[in-house]
From TrEMBL:
It holds the Pfam family PRA-PH. InterPro entries: HisE, PRib-ATP_PPHydrolase-like. This is Phosphoribosyl-ATP pyrophosphatase. It comes from Peptococcus simiae. It is an enzyme of class 3 (hydrolase). The keyword Amino-acid biosynthesis applies.
Amino acid sequence: MQSLDQLYQVVRCRQADPFEGSYTAYLFEEGLDKILKKVGEEAAEVIIAGKNTDRADLTGEICDLLYHLTVLMAEKGLDPATIDSELARRAEKIGNKKPSHASDPES
């Protein structure tokens, strides 16, 4: 995803060379707890937008979540190539649905 790579590079630049007024620099300055809080908030907003019918709102919320996940990736030293490799590995799995367990009607 080229745009995710571009976003990641901007985030890493703000991390390496923060400037006043940068929201990204602010998140890094506040630290991991703040970044994680924002990821959680944005995930909840995606859930709410997903229940509604406004596609533009859902798109915006997904973008917000991806941005904050990208900040988390940079904070933890994960680059998009690492994530892409894991996604490719997972895509190779066939029949990866977890088996369901039969319930015991007598228990």
